[in-house]
Amino acid sequence: MENFSFFPEQASTMATQIDAIYFVLVGLSVIFAVGIAVAVIVFGIRYRKSTSVDRSNPLHESMKLEFAWSFIPFLMAMGIFTWSAFVYYNINTPPTDAVEIYVVGKQWMWQIQHPLGKAELNELHVPINQPVKLIMSSQDVIHSFFVPAFRVKQDVLPGRYTTLWFEATKVGEYHLFCAEYCGTEHSKMTGKVIAMEPQDYQNWLSGGGGGESMVEAGARLFQDNGCASCHIDGEGGRGPNLHGIFGTEVALEGGGTAVVDEAYLRESIYEPGAKVVAGYAPIMPSYQGSISEGGVLQLVAYIKSLSEGQ
Amino acid sequence: MTVSSPPVKLEKPPQNYLNWAFGIKSWLLTTDHKRIAILYLITVTLFFALGGLAASLVRFELITPQGDLMSADNYNKSFTLHGMLMVFFFLIPGIPAVMGNFLIPLMIGAKDLAFPRLNLASWYVFMVGGLFTMTVIVVGGVDTGWTFYTPYSSTYSNGAVILAALGIFAAGFASIFTAINFVVTIHKMRAPGLTWFRLPLFVWAHYATSIIILLGTPVLAITILMVGIERMFKIGIFDPALGGDPLLFQHLFWFYSHPAVYIMVLPSMGVISELITAFTRRRIFGYKAIALSSLAIALLGFLVWGHHMFVSGQSVYAGLVFSAITFMVAIPSAIKVFNWTATLFKGTISFTTPMLYALGFIGLFTIGGLTGLFLGAAAVDVHVTDTYFVVAHFHYVMVGATIMAYMGAIHFWWPKITGKLYNEGWGISSAIIIFVGFNLTFMPQFIMGYLGMPRRYYAYPDEFQIYHIASSAGAAILAFGYVLPLFYLLYSLFFGPKAGDNPWNAKGLEWTTASPPPHENFEETPIVTEEAYAYPVPQKAEVTSGA
Ligand SMILES: [Cu+2]
Ligand SMILES: [Cu+2]
Q1: 3 state SS of B349
Q2: SS3 sequence, chain A?
Q3: What are the domain boundaries of chain A?
Q4: Which of B380, B374, B379, B377 minimizes the C-alpha distance to B393?
Q5: A8 to chain B, minimum CA–CA distance in Å?
Q6: Least-confidence region, from A174-178, A237-241, B55-59
Q7: B379, pLDDT greater than 70
């Protein structure tokens, strides 16, 4: 009970923005609540049954009053809404230069992979003063990645990618919670986020136990699972050439197009039949069950790397 | 108040709905709305007690940061049971099926509801739902939370999900039956002269509630049916591993469950309008604004479900639209609070037990409503959703407000229902204890929620302990406050003084008939010639002393 506090630490750029709205709301709430309490108490005492006071001409209706006390709160509400809308939009729009880190949630742990290969469990090391974007998916049920000190939270869903970004501002260790109820050990699905000076982060990344980078691991999986036998670098493979496709639009069999993003790549691996590239036969096998979500993330990183510098 | 007893009159007491027929069969096969209300009252109280027990287990466990009192699984089952029982078997049916059932025909001068047998069927279906839920406990419980999020509920949980779903399914139908009855009754069976804008606001509120129930509950029923189908037959609807969409469940679930908040709160608001007018002895301020804001809430309430999903992965733009409408739906609620407060002005106020509950309601509902704005502001919601902040918020709105109104209603109409007066001293004490206990329980949860304490955690980091201890202490006080009325009300049933027809000297048709009312409610159909709450208006410049 030693570190007792009223207010959570502010350790990200988002924290200050959200807290500002929070304080204004607290202020307005106190004004309204106290206003009503005072009115109730004053009227309650003044007009209590045993007193003789002027009770003549009690108002029963007043369009003016009704309008005033609907319209003024309405304007305030819309003001707060607009402000919070901008911040919310910001929360959901990661900067393009963010460091990308991959997260897989599963009952009841967080698996984290850094692009250069460092993997960790229930711990996330991040640099400060640099936007970090998490690309997240779940292996089973819905979880939620929550770092109170950063004021960010995002559900982590099976079957799709969600992203969350933040920019830490203070070196330190912060709670990481799973905020979406996910079964027996939900309350043990916790960990910590360790924010470090960028230099320390680099040192940490290149420290022992790094192993292969995500791209390397993806390349290995690409060979081991026989992807390379169909997807060759050039014309004439049984499957399309995967070089340079990330971020482009592909034409689909039966009309329509799809943008090649992380979710599309994941779907292509787990459910190749869902969107078939125009001009190809639907012969690619599904890897659902044989490649884990973590493996798919490595493949995705690898396929993305094939489009870099093109 | 002196009760002038008529000179020696040794005949048997006049016929009323309680002594109209005797024996267990006369209760279990009754079609009298008043008796069905009593059946509901008893069963709903039992479910409340069970739900409260589950809550005490939760609060006990949380006194220490480690999970020590019980296993994680049992903790999860406890809060699930608590939520299920309280939401579907107490808060939703509470005021409508008990007070609404008893009072609506009396308030509109009718002999019964439009479909008395449907009304009885509603109670039986409700009991079937209750039975399923009790069976869930016997066979080992369910651990999905009352929200049943997929794919956890449909694939991963190994609790008795199907049984629990059936229980909720049945309870849903019970409330649909009640709602149909209310709508038809209010449309068709009003006494001569009782126009829509002469209806007590209690009736307006139940009308709006019934519309929400009719539009929303079928969606809930279909949704939990689909969870059952996916679980039993592995047909992919919500689980992505089977080709389903987990967010679809959340959309459907909240499409019902947000309006469900208003199913709980609108009837409470109806109660409060009755209590405040009776104890200020004046017409309500802004009758039409209050009546119509009920309808506005009922309709707008269907357009905000996505505010439960700001971090779910729903599109940003959808989130913004839901956020905007959420702010708008706050306005009709605010209007009501202002109108009630304005009604106190130039009233003749007596602080009886029901009035204290009404004022308590205004307090808790105001706090609940204002903290709702924090959650409606999408950016702040990102931080506080799924923490104790949300837990505190919805307890203030759904529980605090509804229970204040429910208790206020029970006390206010107790003399009508039973013909007996309870002890005011005890009544006032319990109202104060409940109010204090409630705030002590839930106020600390706002703070720890903003600090980041996630909900549904059975073990937690040390720094939250002090808040949990305060909360558990509050819960103990609250529990005491809930138990007290059980004693003095039951006592009054046997030893309380006779109430007389209108002990509060209140307006409203229900006070014009005997207490307890006769089987057919009125000797002859009343004819209404005045507005609701037509209390005498003090003349110009006249100074009145209420004493
Ligand atoms: Cu979890
Ligand atoms: Cu809602």
Answers
A1: strand
A2: CCCCCCCCCCCEHHHHHHHHHHHHHHHHHHHHHHHHHHHHHHHHHHCECCCEEECCCCCCCCHHHHHHHHHHHHHHHHHHHHHHHHHHHHHCCCCCCCEEEEEEEECCEEEEECCCCCEEECEEEEECCCCEEEEEEECCCCEEEEEHHHCEEEEECECCCEEEEECECCCEEEEEEECCCCCCCHHHCCEEEEEECHHHHHHHHHCCCCCCCHHHHHHHHHHHCCHHHHCCCCCCCCCCCCCCCCCCEEEECCCCEEECCHHHHHHHHHCCCCCCECCCCCCCCCCCCCCCHHHHHHHHHHHHHCCCCC
A3: 1-46+94-211, 214-305
A4: B374
A5: 5
A6: A237-241
A7: yes
Which superfamily is assigned to A1-46+94-211 in CATH? Cupredoxins -  blue copper proteins (2.60.40.420)
- Among B337, B365, B457, B544, the strongest candidate for a mutation testing the A interface, having the largest count of A CBs within 10 A, is B457
- φ, ψ dihedrals at B14, nearest 5°: -60, 155
Tell me the torsion sign for CA atoms B394, B395, B401, B403: positive
Look over chain A and give the mean of its residue pLDDT values, rounded to a whole number.
89
For chain A, say whether B210 makes contact (Cβ under 8 Å). Answer: no
- Alpha carbon distance B480, B458 (integer Å): 24
Mean pLDDT rounded to a whole number for chain B = 91
* Rounded-to-integer distance, Cα B220 and Cα B258, Å: 11
The structural domains of chain B, ordered by start, are: 22-528 (1.20.210.10)
CB contact under 8 A, B76 and A183: yes
Give me the pLDDT at residue A310, please: 52
pTM exceeds cut of 0.80: yes
Is A47 within 8 Å of B455 when comparing Cβ atoms? no
pLDDT at B181 over 50: yes
Number of alpha carbons in the 13 Å side-chain half-sphere of residue B89: 32
Encoded tokens for B176: 């649909």
Q: Does domain A214-305 have CATH number 1.10.760.10?
A: yes
- Find the closest chain A residue to B547 by CA distance: A50
Interface pTM (ipTM) of the complex?
A: 0.90
Tell me, rounded to whole angstroms, the distance of Cα B17 from its chain centroid: 25
User: What mean pLDDT is predicted for residues A129-148?
Assistant: 94
- Where do runs of H (alpha helix) occur along B345-464? 353-376, 378-384, 388-394, 402-418, 424-451
Burial profile B324-339: b = 16 or more Cβ within 10 angstroms, e = fewer: bbbbbbbbbbbbbbbb
Cα B33-B39-B41 angle, rounded to 5 deg: 100
Which listed ligand is nearest to B76 at the C-alpha?
A: 1
Q: Residue B457 is encoded by which pair of tokens?
A: 């955690």
Residues of B with Cβ-Cβ distance to A186 under 8 angstroms: 72, 76, 456-457
Report whether pLDDT(A22) > 50: yes
The alpha carbon of A178 and the centre of ligand 1 are apart by a number of angstroms equal to 4
Closest CA to B288 of B405, B199, B189: B199
The answer to whether B535 contacts chain A (CB < 8 Å) is: no
Cβ count within 10 A of residue B45: 15
